Amino acid sequence: MSILVNNISKHFGSQKALDQVSFDIKQGEVVGFLGPNGAGKSTLMKILTGYLQADEGEASVANCDIEKQTSILQSKLGYLPEHNPLYSEMYVREYLQFNASVYKTDKHRVEEVIRITGLSPEANKKIDQLSKGYRQRVGLAAALLHDPEVLILDEPTTGLDPNQLVEIRALIKGIGGETEENGKGKTVFLSTHIMQEVEAICDRVIIIDKGKIVADRKLTELQQKGEQVIFVEFDYKIENVALQRLPHIKDIKSMGGFAYELTFDTQEDMRPAIFDFAHDMGLKTLQLNRKAKNLEGLFAELTRK
Ligand SMILES: Nc1ncnc2c1ncn2[C@@H]1O[C@H](COP(=O)(O)OP(=O)(O)OP(=O)(O)O)[C@@H](O)[C@H]1O
User: How far apart are the C-alpha atoms of 88 and 130, rounded to whole Å?
Assistant: First the structure.
């Protein structure tokens, strides 16, 4: 496993920022860590990168125990913190060369990461002259310098304009997984509160809310096209055999009382058909809601206050 998190908890005073968090990530997976503000994303990332200590639990990154093997860990891990600290007085190439010497990385690698991150046109500029998008690229370039196995990126696209967003997302997607360009299957764990970002970049999403993991799904599971789920509540009992007569019906789940969760094998909105069906059966429809099966729906359902 590339990242293994086992029952990690962290308190700040009386507040529980992380509550028994567990999951694992395989090599080459690009996983989005999604959650509302204050959910605990940065706290977990700081723990995994050795900037904070957990109160309970254990974790390993690139097969290194995060507490016992910190120096090997740093050689296998690239980290882009949320507030990317850069020396703004330095020139881009100079800053990367400085980092390369700190990490004892081959100087040739500086030119390689400049190319990979699209920094060539800005490489001779001072960092404080760069746009936010290019500063983010410098942070990414620095995180990639020592060719780490695992990349942990804390909100890598915050504050970028739409064009930069597209470029940085493509860059991250290209770094992760097994691509022809890198051929190495880097693992990428990135935090965000933007669902479209997860859909654009990730293979899998882990959703955290109030310090607890509330979902862990493959994106392919969430993109099952051609299905819809509708929650319906009638004012009186109806037999399953009667509900089976609804067009496109695939599954009927009884939700207690006179309520049902109906799955249809079509994208066409089936609410009018259910309404007419109830009317024909002499029933009143008390509730009729289409349940989103996509990421947006799942996120709203799981993190609603
Ligand atoms: N050093 C700290 N001292 C006290 N409380 C903290 C500290 N760091 C984080 N917290 C609290 O822990 C909770 C989780 O914070 P964290 O920064 O991990 O959330 P997040 O999911 O990254 O949020 P955001 O999306 O807003 O960056 C928050 O309520 C935050 O206020």
Answer: 9
Structure letter (DSSP) for residue 91: B
* Rounded distance from Cα 38 to ligand 1 centre (Å): 5
Ligand 1 within 6 A of 71 CB? no
- What is the number of domains present in the chain? 2
Provide ipTM, 2 decimals: 0.97
Total-model pTM: 0.79
Specify the pairing of strand 30-34 against strand 15-25.
unpaired
Q: Residue 179 has what pLDDT?
A: 47
Residue 280 is part of which domain span?
A: 228-303
Q: What's the first-to-final CA gap in the chain, in angstroms?
A: 34
Q: Is the distance from the beta carbon of residue 17 to the nearest atom of ligand 1 less than 6 Å? A: yes
Lowest average pLDDT, out of 122-131, 154-163, 217-226, 260-269, goes to 217-226
Same domain for 119 and 103, yes or no, is yes
Give the pLDDT score at 193. Answer: 84
Last residue of a domain, one of 188, 203, 220: 220
CA of 141 to the centre of ligand 1 (A): 26
Whether 59 and 172 map to the same domain: the answer is yes
Whether 242 and 151 map to the same domain: the answer is no
Contact 39 CB / ligand 1 (< 6 Å): yes
User: pLDDT tens digit string along 143-176?
Assistant: 999 989 999 999 988 777 887 788 888 888 887 7
Cα–Cα distances in Å, from 63 out to 33, 34, 68, 76, 177?
A: 20, 24, 11, 9, 18
Last residue of a domain, one of 199, 220, 241: 220
Is 71 found in the same domain as 144?
A: yes
Give the domain CATH number at 59.
3.40.50.300
**What is the rounded CA–CA span in Å between residue 226 and residue 245?**
19
Whose alpha carbon is nearest atom 7 of ligand 1? 12
CATH number of the domain encompassing residue 298: 3.30.70.100
CA of 40 to the centre of ligand 1 (A): 6
